[in-house]
């Protein structure tokens, strides 16, 4: 006699993990919370009413389920509405990377097949110039902050302000596996690759973040005020536009990044929670107005990801009274996989000892299965020494690269998503990325973990930024070279001497020490503001 | 040009929200956390190893996916392992209500079709007596705390200790909609009804709790130590055996409830977090040893549910320095729907003002869509006055009553789960249950909310417990009568006078005041320890 539920009522409601359902609860619970965009502020109640009006307007001009809708904008209130409105009607939001060169912007839009495109006024002229090439676009939706019509030769042309004028739509109750977003990730080689995410992916990613972000030392409460400094075209701004709303947090939108204005906003809106890459944190803290707003920076909690968080930078942030914590993920992973919160081991350490863990890659967040697989195919030991590739499984990973079966196959080899990141794991369970697989310097058949070297070099007085890359070497295959941007007086000798001090402590090997330190004025960067190591390697090869 | 992901790799891993996947992450993150059962303590690492050995043993004697496995036990370490092991192999755990009379225990086991039954030694004799009736049972699995074999005439007989001896199984990666649990809920009329839950239900319920329990004033951290005082046969012990493990909290099992021992355990294991019904809280606080352990009770955080939390009891708990918070749910809802955490309105109130919200039914937890529908079919106003029935949608509700299409149809009428509870909602969003629909007193065509009266009466000095029920009345249909258990000197006049004081404040209507106060020695209780109002009404009818 087995249990067979034969009598399920036809009226049983199967709750889909979609946007409509998931955000219905916070809309009702936190209706008076605010979303702030410079001088404009709307309550959650107004926000969702306007979002549903936009849903109605989009459907009215013909946007259908499965249609790709491109968005070309800074971090604005309009973008925030589109983050909800486009998926709510079952369409697919393409967050166009506006930092790409024009050609790549075009190629990615053509590749995704953007059927409709929402464009902020200042981006209209460049699109007009190449309008004839966008034969796949069936509607251009333009807007300006003022709300007044934007004149343009783009055609067919719609004013977003008209689309927002109608009544509210009743969002359909979609299958949770409906596609929600697509965007492109710039590899260090080849054209950008498209990754896609489903509504269920984003809901579960939000739930996992909601839980882990309430852990120490982030200790998120509903009183926190968010301002993500990860552009909204970049991997869902790490999920913050969804997490904040789900938890009832006030959300502040910075528009186009201007660090002076951002510092003012942090002060005016009492921002307490942010996310950013290390270079943005650095620019914020070294901004001429930083000291003037030091009081507002005190207590700010920041998740730093996108690249390793250098210890020197973390200490600078601590000097401001900020709490900085490392996080890790990829475009392919929605993005978050790990966050460096404290656990029962590291809680007991002194603040100084904790820092090494807080700036690490961190601990897997709920529902993340993370393995570090060594060259022998086995998981490495939890000894902080064995190096292997991070492979993961979670319920929010991309199914693959859009229209690229070959790279998809590599990504998902053996049913695990391959991150291409090399890491160790310590006895407390913290993951430490030591290198991108393709950035690793392989010398005499062994990996030299460049992130470990960069971290130690960043501690030297006068070092602003550092990147270690491999120079081809006839004898060893490759040898490490350090590129350094100064912020004061520092010499090659001082850096080498500092590193040598760690040899006896067992932190580094003697043969890891770079053959040369090259001082440069500024680091070359990718469109997502990461240090462009490919460019640095090219410079070495050219010289 | 629409987005169609045609190139999904066959190796893409579709993560199912099942037990195997969900608990893999905490097992790896918190391997040294402990589960404590009197003098036995196992780490999470040992716990999962033993659980997988048990999986292997169960599969070895023939337990297959879909088989119902009954469990007859107190809150033990063995039960905790079965909470995981049975679903992990795809079987269905039937948490047999051992507080039922023997006949009901048999009837529910027969109705569920328990194919295998795990029995703690002390329950073996009574089962042996009726062994011939259990023709549907294909295997009895017996155990004792000591681990030594239990002799019995039950047949076929297996020793659980033998089942645990083998190697670990590799749990299958099941579809998330695999049935996980079944148990019976005693209505106030008719036979108990069976409700069932899927692995996905339990995973999403756990995730929602993980997020909301970290909100103030519960402020769950990984340092908290759990001991749920909701029996494990009762609605998944409100999900705590899963929440604690998912969050890496030490978990203490109380065995068979003995309040003296429980107080000792709270002190010895430094328990900081519990869940219980009001009557258990009352028994704990009024226990002769409560004062001796007052130091350990200080700071204890408790979610009280299963029945309204009387203000008098909440104040008594505050006197001990405890934090008590109301929660609400049904057997049909997994169970949690609401918890009375603080929100941005109530955070600003004084502790005295907060109490009225903390003891309320509370706020919907993540993913709960909750409506209060008045007699006119419309949602009631957020004014704390309009009374309607609570109906809900969440991703963890039972699909229906097992083998009972008629009652299932009522439960799920119009695609919403009907709780049968009458409530109001205030301007801060807090739900306040005013009555069970069937417990409401209807006088002169209007509802008299008995919970409001009970709450006010509980404030009178000398009142230990109170229940208000309706007595048939030729003129008004029904009139309220209060049953009171004393804990000191108190008179009918004092109670009536206390209530009259609230008329002018608008808290109650004059005609709500009970016609009579009847003092009794103790309250009649249902098998789940709730006050049995059906029995009280029967007494009124008999007199």
Summarize the structure.
With 543 residues, chain A is an alpha/beta fold.
The greatest interface between two protein chains, and residues involved on each side, is: A-B, 78 and 78 residues
The name of the CATH topology of the largest domain in chain A is Rossmann fold
The assigned structural class of chain A equals: alpha/beta
CATH class of the largest domain in chain A: Alpha Beta
| Shape field of chain A | globular
> Sheet with the most strands of chain A?
7 strands, mixed
How many individual β-strands of chain A? 25
Q: What's the CATH architecture name of the largest domain in chain A? A: 3-Layer(aba) Sandwich
Number of helices of chain A: 18
Description:
Two copies of one chain form a homodimer. By secondary structure, chain A is of the alpha/beta class. Chain A folds into three domains: 19-194, ANL, N-terminal domain (Rossmann fold, 3-Layer(aba) Sandwich); 258-436, ANL, N-terminal domain (Rossmann fold, 3-Layer(aba) Sandwich), CATH 3.40.50.12780; 441-542, ANL, C-terminal domain (GMP Synthetase, Chain A, domain 3, 2-Layer Sandwich), CATH 3.30.300.30. Helices cover 29% and strands 23% of the residues of chain A. The longest helix of chain A is centred in the N-terminal third of the chain and has 17 residues, at 44-60. Residues 1-7 of chain A have low confidence and may be disordered. The interface between A and B is large, with 78 and 78 residues.
